[in-house]
Design a protein that fits this description.
Blueprint: H1 5-13, H2 24-41, H3 44-68, H4 70-73, H5 79-83, E1 87-91, E2 94-97, H6 99-105, H7 111-120, H8 127-136, H9 149-153, H10 160-166, H11 168-184, H12 188-191, H13 195-198, E3 209-212, H14 218-226, E4 236-240, H15 242-245, E5 255-259, E6 273-277, H16 285-298, E7 305-310, E8 312-313, H17 320-333, E9 338-339, H18 340-349, E10 352-359, E11 366-372
Parallel strand pairs: 3-4, 3-6, 4-5, 6-7, 8-9
Antiparallel strand pairs: 1-2, 7-11, 10-11
The structure holds S-adenosylmethionine (SAM).
């Protein structure tokens, strides 16, 4: 090591997010290295403590502060949050908000929705529910969406979507988390060229884009904003469960809101594109095949495109985001993320051929562009 150990802390303290000047790949690579550094330096007991003890105390504390509106009111904050840099201690019993705690107090940032969603939903797909469920099911890979860790762990013994449908607050925290997550991710329209959809002779008797499982419309609204002038009224369609659509705030001149259950036949026929963003990772292969076959039956051969924005797991070196999302899907919905080979098999099984896989530079999700047809045979 070239830097004396005593100087390392001083050097690290000087690094800030501004140093990267918007270079997201470099910022994320640095976080990864910093995390590896922590992993190398931590004693096993320190790591266990953080995972199994401290996290729950911090989440409980943050939730209480959000509930009480303490971040908005800037009152005295506690030592634990200062010790973990959620706030900054500037003098005895005096604390300053950090960008993170400010964001928690700013409802528009939707960060508080994440914390709430952790309490409302994510904890039921993890914790000891996860290990006990796997033990009780003889460590079989969960593939039955009706029998999930989540359902096993939650007090009502219901699946994620059923709980959201019964309790509006649970739907709200889930939807806020999804929108916040979408704002953070590289938007699919930034690495998939959306002009592809408009640069052919458009059939105006059918919609241009159907956002299937589009939640409260954050994705389709961005598409509308980008191509505002080129899009006739009513030619965008937002589909989801009625309870998710109840929270949609979209331009209803251009965007038609349509309740639709993905496991039933697709009512919108001959659209230019059917988009599924973070939808198939919620479903096992057999249910995904049902959804794909309903979509295929609605598509016009040679014209309609299928767009899937989801994780494509690399053969090696999956990021922590990708790997954690895979295990979360296992716990929440008995579902999974897929490798390119798994996507090829699933799509060809429903009569699709992949035209191109558009990759997110942040290496989180990709857009799989496909159409009806048989995949070309690869030369041996
Ligand atoms: C992980 S979210 C993705 C939402 C959105 N596409 C995004 O990327 O932010 C999955 C979506 O599928 C919807 N969903 C779940 N079951 C459904 C069903 N049977 N029919 C239609 N939509 C469903 C949920 O309400 C939710 O909005």
């Amino acid at each position: 090591m070239t830097v004396p150990a005593t100087n390392t802390a001083n050097l690290l303290r000087q690094v800030s997010a501004h140093d990267f000047d918007g270079d997201e790949s470099a910022r994320l690579a640095t976080i990864r290295e910093a995390q590896r550094l922590i992993n190398r330096l931590q004693h096993p007991t320190e790591r266990s403590w953080e995972l199994a003890f401290e996290n729950w105390a911090i989440l409980g504390t943050l939730q209480t502060f959000v509930d009480l509106g303490i971040f908005e009111r800037w009152l005295r904050l506690c030592r634990l949050l200062a010790a973990k840099d959620f706030i900054e201690e500037v003098a005895e019993e005096q604390y300053k908000l950090t960008p993170f705690s400010l964001a928690l107090g700013d409802r528009g940032s939707l960060q508080a929705g994440w914390i709430q969603c952790g309490h409302d939903h994510f904890k039921y797909g993890g914790l000891d529910h996860f290990s006990r469920f796997l033990q009780e099911t003889s460590y079989r890979d969960p593939v039955d969406g009706g029998n999930t860790v989540y359902r096993f762990g939650c007090p009502e013994n219901l699946d994620l979507w059923a709980r959201c449908s019964l309790t509006p607050e649970l739907q709200t925290s889930f939807s806020e988390m999804m929108e916040c997550w979408t704002r953070y991710k590289t938007h699919w329209a930034d690495y998939f060229d959306t002009n592809v959809l408009l640069s052919c002779e458009i059939d105006h008797s059918a919609p241009i884009l159907v956002d299937v499982g589009g939640n409260r419309g954050h994705d389709i609204s961005l598409f509308r904003a980008r191509h505002h002038a080129a899009i006739p009224a009513g030619s965008l369609v937002l589909q989801d469960r009625p309870e998710a659509l109840a929270l949609a705030e979209v331009d209803q001149d251009k965007i038609r809101i349509m309740p639709h259950d993905v496991l039933t036949p697709q009512p919108v026929r001959n659209a230019r594109a059917y988009m599924f963003h973070a939808v198939f990772h919620d479903w096992s292969d057999d249910k995904s095949l049902v959804i794909l076959k309903h979509t295929a039956a609605a598509m016009k051969p040679g014209y309609s495109r299928l767009l899937i924005a989801d994780v494509v797991l690399p053969p090696t070196g999956a990021s922590a985001f990708q790997a954690a999302m895979d295990v979360s899907m296992m716990g929440l919905l008995s579902a999974k993320e897929r490798t390119q080979g798994m996507w090829e098999e699933l799509l060809s099984g429903a009569g699709f051929k992949i035209l191109k896989i558009w990759k997110d530079p942040k290496q989180y999700e990709s857009v799989i562009e496909a159409e009806l047809g048989t995949p070309e045979q690869k030369d041996e």
